[in-house]
Design goal:
Rossmann fold; 26% strand
Amino acid sequence: MNSPTLLSIHSLIDQCHQELRAAMTHGQLHQPLMVGIHSGGVWVAEALHQRLGLEEPLGKLNITFYRDDFDTLGLHPQVTPSQLPVDIDGRDVILVDDVLYTGRTIRAAMNELFDYGRPARIWLVVLFERDGRELPIAAQTVGQRLVLPPRQQIHVAGPDPLTARIVTREDPA
């Protein structure tokens, strides 16, 4: 089976930028605060934040300890603290990640955000959305949608240059 082709990262960021700009222009997002999920989501958020010219600093979330599959995945994280530079109560928050797959990362990020306050709205932006959702989570802005076999995943590397490729996991021995 052939893997789908990934579109250019730069064209996907341009597309997401245009959709976010339209949402802001049409009043769907009011003076939003942008927050990226460590690490790939932060890289994408940095590019979008710059293109949108948002005044407030970019927020960064490290959701490692909020994941419900922390022990299952055998993570050995390099934990860096989350940084939310302003109060999120009553704010529109643009939450950015690189890949939306099962929905567990986004659930963890929302749990952490609510520990900081109660946003008015969370607008989810992902560069890639793939099939395989385990939780009922959907993004409002998506760069590219993909259907992949279970053993394949999207690997985003960066930050400079920001790249993406489809990789195939090996079966455990």
